[in-house]
Amino acid sequence: MTFLQLNDLKVHFPTDDGLVKSVDGLSFQLERGKTLGIVGESGSGKSVTSLSVLGLHKGGRAKISGEIWLDGEELVSASQEHVRSLRGKKMAMIFQDPLSAMHPYYTVGDQIIEAYRIHNAVSKKVAKKHAIDMLGRVGIPQPDRRVDSYPHEFSGGMRQRAMIAMALSCDPELLIADEPTTALDVTVQAQILDLMRDLQRDFNAALIIITHDLGVVAELSDDILVMYGGKCIEYGTAEDIFERPEHPYTWGLLGSMPRLDREVTERLLPIKGSPPSLINVPSGCAFHPRCAFEPRTGGKGSTLVPDLVETEGGHLVRCHLSREERRDIWATEIKPKLES
Amino acid sequence: MVTYIIRRLIGALAMLFIVSAVTFSIFFVVPRLAGVTPDDIANRYVGRAATAETVTAVAEKLGLHDPVVVQYGRWVKGVFVGAEYDYGTGVEQCPAPCLGYSFVTKQPVWPDLVDRLPVTLSLAAGASVIWLVIGVSVGVLSALKRRSIFDRGAMIIALAGVSLPPFFTGLVALSLLSYGLGITAPGGAYTPLTENPGLWAYNLILPWLTLAFLNAAAYARLTRAGMLDTMGEDYIRTARAKGLKESKVIGKHGLRAALTPIVTIFGLDVGILVGGAILTENAFSLQGLGKYATTAIAANDLPKIMGFTMLAAFFIVVANLIVDLLYAVVDPRVRLS
């Protein structure tokens, strides 16, 4: 049995301007000890996906359908109270900005102790010892002293480490990291990513990393899911995505990734236009207004929503171009530019 | 933390000094600039039949011809060691702390103020507890049930509470509940708490509610806005992600942060109130500091007004100090700076 499985997940928000389809029919699977990277621009639905797994999608107004199976339990139809009892214990989350994600009035230790004691009936003393252990494990120096510090007394990297310690305090089996390094200095980013890789190995948790930065998932992910306009548009192993990407949007993401091994004089290849409105989603393929290859679909791009189809060995792509056309374009037009 | 406290204490003392100097100037310098002579002031104290010579002699004895700085120094000295006033008919004692001596009632101001204080304190204590509890609870519920009928109803009532002055709501409450239904005291009576707590509360319940209505409304609106802000914060999402029960998310994480500005305002409001709830005390004929002040103003009794102003200023400065110190306790980020 798969550890985490999403089947046709839809999260829609009714607003005054219309229905916002933040997540529109998303399916994927994830095993223990494996890492899935979910990549997309702002508003692609990646954060809403992760929040809905934890049952934290905002307010009672969100309409959620589909299935979320976690270790044999279906969560969409489960009671809120049951999902709450799993939160923090079976599944935990790390957020983007550790300064705003930690309560400014409580010490770091108190916040970890609180997280631990929600799910473990232990004394404060035992919980504090556990908090110190956890802070040590995530590489905070002098954890027995730092446990009584407030979040504002920590540096950004330390705060994110403390956040990770808090998330891991109840030994969760699923860990979701939502842009865990975006708010950090570049030098600290690498440390945090290393730490997450090490801890995942120790805890044997399933890890979902949500990011707009392909560079982040390249380091860590076994599989990568590229989201656009609330839908999965390409899914495959990290190797598939980096060596044999087949969707024009993925090509765009790769082209807009700064790389140290490239000449400075070269320009990035940005994706034209901006992410689609989730209320007035473009007709047909949501990406077609920005797609350089749309003319080659013979008009289908703007009228028909393409299906997500398997191209080879679990590698899924949602595109009107034929497999041969895509491989041809990648090999002759895109790859040479990226490598030059 | 200790240096922080010491710094605040010094600041508070300096503030009191400035307030007294400014108040003194307003009462004793500004009239002089407007052409009032020391003899005019002395004239008020000696009665209508006095001759010009008597008036000048009294003004001389009271030191009204001295430079203002000297007069102010004498007043400050009186606060610490007491003073004597000689205005012709005999020497009047004004023991420390002498905030002034009323020549209208021929009484030192301080004992009068001390007499009135329990009334105002009782009024402030009861009312503030009521408005804090009601205001914060309504505000929290309104924020959590945003746009519900409860929220809209509460906010309309709050708008009324903020807009209607106590001399209106007080009189309406009196005519309905005391004179109409006869379930509350008719006003004007005060029983010390130490004598009869039941009667104390019975006599004060209507003034409490009137005053609380005004402030509870403001607090409900403030708490609601604060809660709406805080409940959208990232750390609330973190608290939920930990698996914390919603009641604790709201109480321990949401309300704690939303209460910080409320604590500030509450301290200041109570400080202001202890210096006299002028409108409410007048509406219910309560002989508190506020009523004392209006009477003194009507009688143009400068030393009384000066003494009352200084006492009120003292309470506000003290409230400010307490708020500052409390703030450091509530918000750990303040302790550093």
CATH-assigned fold name of the largest domain in chain B: MetI-like fold
Radius of gyration of chain A: 21 Å
Are there runs of chain B of 5+ residues with pLDDT below 50, and where? none
Residues in β-strands, percent of chain B: under 5%
Please name the two chains that share the biggest interface, counting residues whose Cβ lies under 8 Å from a Cβ on the partner chain.
A-B, 28 and 21 residues
CATH architecture of the largest domain in chain B: Orthogonal Bundle
Overview features:
heterodimer; A: 340 residues; alpha/beta; 8-stranded mixed beta sheet; 4-stranded antiparallel beta sheet; globular; B: 337 residues; mainly alpha; MetI-like fold; 2 domains; two-stranded antiparallel ribbon; 15 helices; 4 strands
Structure characterization notes:
The complex is a heterodimer of chains A (340) and B (337). Chain A is an alpha/beta fold and 340 residues long. In chain A, helix 8 links the parallel strand 7 and strand 8. The mean pLDDT of chain A is 89. In chain B, the strands form 2 sheets. Chain B has a two-stranded antiparallel sheet with strand order 1-2. Chain B is mainly alpha-helical and 337 residues long. Chain B is built from 15 helices and 4 strands. The longest helix of chain B has 36 residues. In chain B, strand 3 and strand 4 form a beta hairpin. Chain B has 2 domains: 97 residues, no CATH class; 227 residues, Orthogonal Bundle (MetI-like fold). The model of chain B has no long low-confidence stretch (mean pLDDT 86). The interface between A and B is medium-sized, with 28 and 21 residues.
